[in-house]
Write a structure and sequence with these properties.
The protein is an alpha+beta fold and about 200 residues long. It has one domain: Lipocalin, CATH 2.40.128. It is about 20% helix and about 40% strand. Helix 1 (about 5-15) packs antiparallel against helix 2 (about 25-40). The longest helix has 15 residues, at about 25-40.
Length: about 200
């Protein structure tokens, strides 16, 4: 089976589960199996040595992270797109979740982190800042320009604070990487499937 066929199988498996929000045990098993099959054909065995492939904005298609999926459980709110924006030259990760609400209640939750490469597949992540607020008050247009806003040192018109707790550290391992798809696993056993945007 070619990697394109295995990618198609994975995309078909994750299509009906809304990023992991609605998933039966059988669907979960099928997704994990499709991920394992694709990881066997990883064309980039040393992802951290190819920063140009990792760099950019990635849209989350599937995760097992209850922290991320839990945003959808607030009343009146629905989880929109979730992005992970990697800026390899600066060793920075920006996780940005769009939250849809009533017309004036659309929001954003963003966590900024820095990372250190620890192996050819793994980075150690250190969370630094949380920003949450209204999309309109933050002047949110798109994920790219918002990353630029987050990179500037000025305080934003939002909940904006430094994360200083020692337990806000983790690691992220890239187990599959090609031009447009990335699969990662986190320190809490979470799985992430993302596509380049």
């Amino acid at each position: 089976m070619t990697s394109n066929t295995r990618k198609a199988n994975l995309l078909n498996a994750i299509a009906p589960v809304n990023r992991g929000l609605q998933m039966s045990e059988n669907q979960r098993k099928a997704i994990f199996s499709a991920v394992a099959y694709l990881e066997e054909l990883n064309p980039t065995p040393a992802p951290t040595a190819t920063p140009e492939l990792l760099d950019g904005n990635w849209l989350l298609m599937f995760t097992t992270s209850q922290e991320l999926l839990g945003i959808d459980r607030f009343p009146l709110y629905k989880l929109g797109n979730i992005y992970q924006c990697l800026r390899m030259a600066e060793s920075k990760i920006f996780n940005i979740a769009e939250v849809k609400g009533l017309p004036l209640l659309s929001g954003l939750v963003s966590v900024c982190a820095n990372f250190t490469v620890v192996s050819e597949k793994q980075v150690k992540v250190n969370f630094e800042r949380l920003v949450a607020g209204s999309q309109s008050l933050l002047g949110y247009q798109d994920v790219n320009s918002f990353v630029d806003t987050l990179r500037s040192p000025k305080k934003l018109f939002a909940i904006d604070f430094q994360i200083k707790r020692e337990d806000q550290k983790g690691w992220l391992e890239t187990t599959y990487l090609d031009q447009d798809m990335r699969i990662g696993r986190g320190n809490e056993g979470n799985l992430f499937v993302l596509r380049r945007v």
